[in-house]
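Schema walkthrough. Field components (list of strings):
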Amino acid sequence: MTAQLMKGNVAIAEAAVRAGLQAYFGYPITPQTELLEHLAMRMVELDRVFVQAESEVAAINMVYGAACAGVRTMTSSSSPGVSLMQEGFSYIAASEIPCVIVDMMRGGPGLGNIQPSQGDYFQVTRSAGHGDYRPIVLGPASVQEAIDLTILAFDLADKYRHLVFVVGDGLIGQMMEPAVMPEMRPIRPHPDWAVDGAVGRPKRIITSLNLTTEGCEQANKRIQARLQIIRENEQRSAEYDTEDARILIIGYGTAGRVAQSSVKMARQMGLPVGLLRPITLWPFPEDRLRSLVDNGVEAILVVEMNAGQMIEDVRLVVGRDVPVELHGRMGGAVPLPDDIVEQVQEIAAQIGLTRASVV
Amino acid sequence: MVTLQDELVRTVVYEHPKALTEVPTHYCPGCTHGIAHRLVAEVIDELDIREHTVVVVPVGCAVFAYDYFNLDGVEAPHGRAPAMATGIKRSLRDRIVFTYQGDGDLAAIGTAEIIHAAARGENITTVFINNAIYGMTGGQMAPTTLPGQQTTSSPRGRDIRLAGNPLRITELLAQIDGTCYAVRRSLHSVREIRRAKKALMTAFRTQVNGLGFSIVELLSSCPTNWGITPPDSLKWIEDNMVPFYPLNDFKVSDSVLTMESGA
Ligand SMILES: Cc1ncc(C[n+]2csc(CCOP(=O)(O)OP(=O)(O)O)c2C)c(N)n1
Ligand code: SF4
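Field assembly_structure (string):
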């Protein structure tokens, strides 16, 4: 297989097709529209389901229906559209059925703009709807990773019968990079819980209604137990120059990518800086972060394209053990490597690291 | 010799529809939701499609309809049944998919979903229960509440200057090209119940034949929230609802007429 130049949005769409996507429902919104457009062509070509819904509310409920029917299904949107889908996410989570959602985040709040942003971190990693649950959230930092994580998203969704988000932004969605697309996978059979017509078997029901306190608490406990298994088994992250790092930068997706340049620059200056790039935003790679902090990291700089959202997860892991600072840009601004390095230098000075002391 | 007695014993005059489970419903005495369920179940039995049918139930008093229909079923968020039904039907093209929705569910919060399901000509069927009120939440005004009708959120009667006029949604849906069949019937008398069943039969047959979106609106009672007795509520439908919501065929497409003529 050879690498081809591909746009992020198109790569995710095609990866979903290769993963056996059978039914796609979506509504146009920048910066994810190429994804919908690619599927408008591909799904019909393959005699699979493509519907341009009347709204994101309808789209997520079509996904809900298709998921109940037992097919691999997904939708894609951007921040305001994802806000509209919240009720649907909650019903899907309560129904314990799989689906994939792509969120190409944009500057907010409100209509905001279409520039790259990570302002949806809370919205996707917290409950993404009412009630107690967290979706699995994957944050690619390159076109290749977007492809690989889209495939993984479908597998995790099936494995845990849960919602899985792939989150990026306009930068990941619009940039062209060489990447390798996997082979087409066969369509998977309907799972044994699908509501697909009670032919020769007792009827099945999928509902999120749970009127009794005991029943509802029991269902919650089941969901929480499953989330705990996910938390223990599915933490993923990438690292650069962390072996001897005393200052750790943490950033995911686009911010993580930029921060990687900053690490290189800081290293050239002789500063012992490393990068932890979470790939699963939930479950947050807390085990890896804990062990880095236990093994020499003295300060942390969280780089985000928001006012500081993931930083809360970092603080939950490290507490007051080491200082944690934020480098946050908002409104669609992407952090600049130089600015990050500048803040790294300040941190280095604060914790008594000088160039001389480390070389 | 076969006596008249034997003959009578052998003739089945009543049977529980296979498409209904045998659990008692939670509907209030005199509520016509139960009649609507029974009619739909009889149609499903007569078409012999029970194992191939999926029901999408609403948020509203019929939320437990999945317990009463002996069918695969899902429960949709409030108003979103047509979107869920779209997802199911598109994924299972050879299945019969129907939504069962109240007037709050369909004509208020779910107007976008029902109109666009019709516009796409989704090959699904909608059973629309119009009882002129929000039953489940305790009798608030619905889009279908009649002018002057008292509800808990229109305590002095629906004032059309404040709350606008009721929505005749089936007439509206009849204007849409993707709709092949849009009719209104009522459940207030034996005659109307028989007519309702015939309409439901036609609607499900349009789906079996792949003709497009079909809807049967059923004028239905809510004695509990109307605050009147069950017999009075049937009379209330006849005297007050039927004049406002005429029991007509608003759309019977050529394809449906051809189907009906057996061609
Ligand atoms: C998003 C949302 N909003 C409001 C409600 C509360 N709610 C439950 S049932 C209902 C009205 C149902 O009335 P109708 O559709 O007329 O059905 P009926 O109960 O009369 O059969 C409302 C507003 C809800 N469950 N979800
Ligand atoms: S509240 Fe009204 S609609 Fe609901 S079950 Fe009772 S009578 Fe029927």
